[in-house]
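Entry 14. Structure prediction run on the chain below.
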Amino acid sequence: MVAVEENQLVSGPREGERGYGAADAENVPVQQNVKLKVTINDIIEECGFGRFQWLYLTLFGLIYLSDAAEVALSGIILNTLKCEWNLSTLEEGMIPFMILVSYAIGSVIGGKMSDQYGRRSVLVIMLPVLVIFSILSAFAPEYWSFIVFRSFVGLAIGSNTAAVTTFAMEIVPIIDRAFAMFIINIWFIVGGCYEYSMGLIYMNEYGWRIIVLITAIPTVISCIAAFFIYESPRFLYVSGRYDKMNLTLQHMFSMNDRLLPKHDIVEHEEEERGSLSEIFDGDYFRVTILVIQAFTINAFVEYGASLLLPDMFVYDYCSDSSLFSDDDSSCSLSNTEYFYLLLISSVTLPACLVAYFTCDKFGRIRTMFVSGIVTLVAMLLLLICINTYTLMAEAALVVFFSILQNCALWTFLPESYPTYVRNAAVGLVNGVGKIGAAIGSLMTEVIAAESIRVCLLLYICLTAYQLICIYLMKRDTVGLRLADTRRQLTPPAVTPVAPQEVSPKTRVLGSLGRSDCEARFG
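Output returned:
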């Protein structure tokens, strides 16, 4: 059991805090020297949303920013490297392809490590790796050394993304999980815009090596900050480190100006953490298979469309002229190309904002499904090119709703698994998704060179199949507590309560014996 200081009290919600309303504060009894039998979920709910969550989400957002900048870097410097090192088309295409593949490998490995050794442990190992190889990339003397350095960059980014996403979900109350994803996704958008802006300002004057060094600046800052954070309390709980968990909880409550309730934590038998086979076992099998397919198709279409749509404008798709220019010998991006890159990045902002509201209002699965339908209809309309203005509107819909669906998927994914395998699941699904992105990028380059319409038809067929996968998920995670152990997923003989019927009072200090297994898996 975990013991806390004798003078700690049970405190109710404070006015103006996120998490649950201050109106319920009077319903929470203030008791002294009485230990409550509570779960880690109850304590996270009681902590609410305050300075601790804002500080950690800002750090996680900075990590997202640096990851986005590193990913966007390849698109900026690719033409310059092609000219400087006289690269063939295959060698040029291998640079982003290897980054995505190593990203996928890093995501799987990092996810498993995060469940075994901790979210913080992965960050303090992989962020220095990212800094070192980002800087080494700026001094790469030739093509193959650059490929090796950027592969390690991709490996580190994949590991960091899985750890950060899970960590963010594990420190916020139920009703703030979609908000947490919104916050860190905003930083991802800023990272892309930051990179494209730096390229537009400095690329032609100072060259690609200086751009690589500028890109590493946010990474260095986030690397230093990561050494001062606490481990996820949920990970400490499932790993049986109750004393360290209690210290982390005390820090959380202290930063939020709250008093940690005097409690006895519900202990459990330690389970094998980070097992990849576990996420394909029993209740997880269906949701894992379906979410992998939905995630992969989303990444395939999103990355492919990001390459295809700008070219549809530049090369006059409506007149059915050739997609690629025979005399395209530019060694750097034009101002028009930077404009399109910034435009695509900026579209992500309203998409993430809409995802935040719709995920909580209508649910994660409904948001994914409706987004897929609109994306499908917009791509069908792209086949019928009326004029440039309708083309722009249809392309904007494709980008907007594919990103909205991606935000909903990222919110749904970590909520679907318990803490002891959550990061392994996130890492695996994200890794497979990035393989889909790599394949989508390559296939777009090959197929679109022959026919843009054939490429669009491929996207349409995949999106239609994805809608079937999303429909078969059936059970949503909105309003449900995060499970931490397999025991918490034992189905009870109780009819699940609809998310909108769960009152904030129910979430404060323990639910009334309800498990979320039936609501997750049916």
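The longest helix spans residues 51-84.
Filed with the rest of this week's runs.
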